[in-house]
């Protein structure tokens, strides 16, 4: 059985690194409800892993995050949305798990669409900015 790899979100900071890599544009949107971040890059990554694994414990492990931190992020998302984005499933022979709801899957899709649209709409300016950067 293939060992799952850990996914770790990068903050894009390359300060102190000796080699210059080719520049990239990486928009990082956050959906806020008051002072609470309802959805952002880390929560999206957690949701995507929940879709993939069906397990909060496994998703947290792959993100190198504590189970409690992952549980807190899920609760925050559920509190911010009209409908839960994640629900727990009761155990059985295979044990319990977590399921991303239809609302959660739609939120993921829309978040990724916002990112894609932002990249597309900034393409011309990004090409001009790239010319100013070291390659």
Short descriptors:
135 residues, single chain, elongated, 5 helices, 46% helix, mainly alpha, 4 strands, two-stranded antiparallel sheet
Layout of strands and helices, then pairs:
Elements: E1 31-33, E2 36-39, H1 41-53, H2 56-62, H3 67-80, E3 86-89, E4 97-100, H4 102-121, H5 123-130
Antiparallel strand pairs: 1-2, 3-4
Task: Give a brief description.
The protein contains 5 helices and 4 strands, in the order E-E-H-H-H-E-E-H-H.
Describe the structure.
It is a single chain. This protein has 135 residues and is mainly alpha-helical. It has one domain (31-127): Arc Repressor Mutant, subunit A, CATH 1.10.10.10. The chain has helices at 41-53, 56-62, 67-80, 102-121, 123-130; strands at 31-33, 36-39, 86-89, 97-100. A two-stranded antiparallel ribbon has the order 1-2. It has a two-stranded antiparallel sheet with strand order 3-4. Helix 1 packs across helix 2 (56-62), helix 1 packs across helix 4 (102-121) and helix 2 (56-62) crosses helix 3 (67-80). The termini are far apart. The model is unreliable at 9-16 (pLDDT under 50).
């Amino acid at each position: 059985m293939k060992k799952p790899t850990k996914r770790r979100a990068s903050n894009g900071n390359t300060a102190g690194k000796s080699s210059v890599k080719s520049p990239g544009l990486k928009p990082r949107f956050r959906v806020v409800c008051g002072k609470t971040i309802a959805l952002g890059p880390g929560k999206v990554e957690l949701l995507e892993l929940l879709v993939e694994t069906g397990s909060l414990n496994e998703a947290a492990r792959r993100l190198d995050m504590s189970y409690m931190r992952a549980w807190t992020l899920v609760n925050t998302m559920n509190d911010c949305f009209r409908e839960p984005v994640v629900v727990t499933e009761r155990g059985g022979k295979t044990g319990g798990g977590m399921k991303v709801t239809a609302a959660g899957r739609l939120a993921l899709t829309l978040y990724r669409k916002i990112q894609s649209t932002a990249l597309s709409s900034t393409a011309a300016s990004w090409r001009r900015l790239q010319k100013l950067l070291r390659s």
